[in-house]
Write a structure and sequence with these properties.
By secondary structure, the protein is of the alpha+beta class. Helix content is about 45%, strand content about 20%. The strands form 3 sheets. The protein has a 5-stranded antiparallel β-sheet. It has a 5-stranded mixed β-sheet with strand order 7-9-10-12-11, covered by helices on one side. The chain is built from 14 helices and 12 strands. Helix 7 packs parallel to helix 14 and helix 8 crosses helix 10. The longest helix is centred in the middle third of the chain and has 32 residues. It folds into 3 domains: about 100 residues, Beta-Lactamase (2-Layer Sandwich); about 80 residues; about 160 residues, Heat Shock Protein 90 (2-Layer Sandwich), CATH 3.30.565.
């Protein structure tokens, strides 16, 4: 078979010597049928060795990547089997096989950009998938929560002491699972949806007080005192998206009250100085700062690790805090939409504070 004619339908190009890319022709099973000179240089072996091998001997997950590249009609980043080398692979399906065009992708900028784009697309598709299934995920759990609560309230008839104990356990665990799913979907939404803030004049102090009042059930029954303060130089109104700010504050209070059973929680509003803004790497402008602190919430360096990254924390020794990382990841995403930042400060035996800075307008 004349592979040159198959590739180019012409005899006018010397594909073995003229092209700058590595060309490889394989059959459907991945067996290499033909290569040009550049392929031997790129894969650092002889043409004879290549033509007695399978493409999977040189490229990780080769057959799957080739099939996917054909389906989506896009190039793919591939990795060498035994070396930290990467190639940009373009695939063309012809007759009984595939033509593979490999271009060196070991320039760090090129590889990182391409890899980041691929990860971004995968994350967006994953999040959209979860959001489309939100009702399928939530409805069964809502039924378990509702019916178990009804049974605990006696609507299903009398139960033994042991049955009541089991029903309460079912109700608590299903409620916890419902909360986890809701926060996971919230994070997926903040990652996949481009949030467009609608800036309006907001009474910041009134907004904070309304969210605190709404969350009375979170600290009811706990020995917790909550106070809202503002610095003397803090102006009453700011220009921001009030709904997004509410959601941010709601999530932060939930994180705080799930960890604190006693003591005082202080929410303070202030106007950071120009020096403070510059120190945080923000551009010049007018900003508002909101801090939620408690002397009863003490975090170690291990706790602070991956605080805003649930993808990393799930593989760490700090996995028990994955829910907190999910909630804080949503907060971080919403703040990015507002052009703001968040960080945590924790002083051993003193206090821990969640600090938020957002631009005014």
């Amino acid at each position: 078979m004349d592979f040159k004619k198959i590739l180019f339908k012409t005899n006018s190009i010397d594909v073995e010597h003229s092209l700058p890319d590595a060309l490889i022709f394989i059959n459907k099973d991945g067996k290499i049928q033909w290569v040009n000179d550049i392929a031997a240089e790129v894969f650092e072996t002889s043409k004879m060795h290549l033509m007695t091998s399978n493409i999977s001997d040189f490229i990780e997950n080769a057959i799957n990547l080739i099939s996917n590249a054909v389906i989506i009609n896009k190039s793919a980043i591939t990795k060498s089997v035994d070396k930290e080398l990467y190639y940009d692979m373009t695939v063309r399906e012809i007759e009984d096989g595939y033509v593979l065009d490999f271009r060196n992708a070991n320039n760090n900028d090129f590889y990182n950009d391409s890899a980041n784009q691929d990860v971004s697309v995968i994350n967006r598709e994953k999040n959209n998938f979860l959001l489309k299934l939100s009702n399928d995920l939530k409805s069964p759990i809502q039924s378990i929560v509702g019916f178990s609560q009804a049974m605990a309230d006696g609507l299903g008839g009398e139960m033994s002491e042991q049955q009541e104990k089991y029903i309460k356990i079912i109700n608590k665990n299903s409620s916890d699972l419902m909360y986890f799913i809701a926060k996971l979907l919230e994070m997926s939404q903040t990652e996949s949806v481009s949030i467009q803030p609608e800036r309006k004049t907001v009474d910041a102090l009134a907004l904070v007080n309304s969210v605190v009042k709404f969350n009375e059930q979170l600290y009811k029954g706990k020995d917790v005192k909550i106070s809202v303060t503002q610095d003397d130089n803090y102006k009453k109104t700011i220009s921001t998206d009030g709904e997004i700010l509410k959601n941010i504050l709601q999530d932060l209070l939930e994180v705080m009250f799930k960890s604190v059973d006693m003591g005082e929680v202080i929410i303070n509003l202030s106007t950071p100085t120009e020096e403070y803004i510059a120190d945080k790497g923000l551009s010049a402008g007018t900003y508002s700062m909101l801090s939620i602190s408690s002397s009863s919430l003490l975090l170690s360096e291990n706790d602070l690790e991956c605080m805003f990254d649930p993808y990393k924390i799930v593989d760490s020794t700090n996995r028990k805090n994955v829910l907190r990382a999910i909630v804080l990841s949503s907060v971080k995403n919403m703040l990015q939409a507002l052009g703001g930042i968040i960080w945590v400060e924790s002083q051993i035996l003193k206090s821990t504070s969640f600090n938020v800075i957002i631009p005014e307008g």
